[in-house]
Amino acid sequence: MSFWSQNKPKKPASPPLDTGQAVPVRRKIHRSPPIAFEAKQLAIEAIDCGADRQDVAQVLGVKSNTISTWIKSYNEKGIRGLCCKPSGKKVRKQCTELEKRILAHRTDKPKHGVRRISDELRMHEGLSVSPEKVRQTVNDAGRKQR
């Protein structure tokens, strides 16, 4: 079945090392897999109960600086601070554009609830957004305005 195999373009042969030409090196960025929200929460509770930060970090397989970052974000933002955040610029840009559309819809039609805003964005603009995301966005905007 040849239609299942992918035709990969052939890589150009690298120049011999003794020619004096610079060979570009691509370094692979090492990122560890994300830690579950519940594990972060348990780690913070353990440290609050008196566990050593180094021991908790060793059990989870992260550095103690990571635990400190979790504690800082938990103290600043509460439980929402422990949730995963969009990492790429493109994802963050899409999220801010989505939030702008949600808030624009809310200001145009202030009597609409979160479910109706979610449904109308899905039907009219083709945006798949949950009512929970609409609620969070509206509540965050309300806190910023005060």
Please provide a brief summary of the model.
It contains six helices and no strands. The chain is mostly helical and 146 residues long.
Overall form: flat
Number of strands: 0
Cα Rg: 24 Å
From the N-terminal CA to the C-terminal CA, the straight-line distance is 63 Å
Order of helices and strands: HHHHHH
Number of helices: 6
Question: Helix coverage percent of residues?
Answer: 55-70%
Largest pleated sheet:
none
Poorly predicted regions are none
Helix-strand category? mainly alpha
Strand proportion: under 5%
Return the average pLDDT rounded to an integer. 79
Secondary structure: elements and pairs:
Layout: H1 37-48, H2 53-60, H3 64-77, H4 89-108, H5 114-125, H6 131-145
Helix pairs in contact: 1-2, 2-3, 4-6, 5-6
What does this molecule look like?
This protein has 146 residues and is mainly α. The protein is built from six helices and no strands. The chain has helices at 37-48, 53-60, 64-77, 89-108, 114-125, 131-145. Helix 4 packs across helix 6 (131-145). The radius of gyration is 24 Å and the shape is flat.
Features:
146 residues; mainly alpha; flat; 0% strand; 55% helix
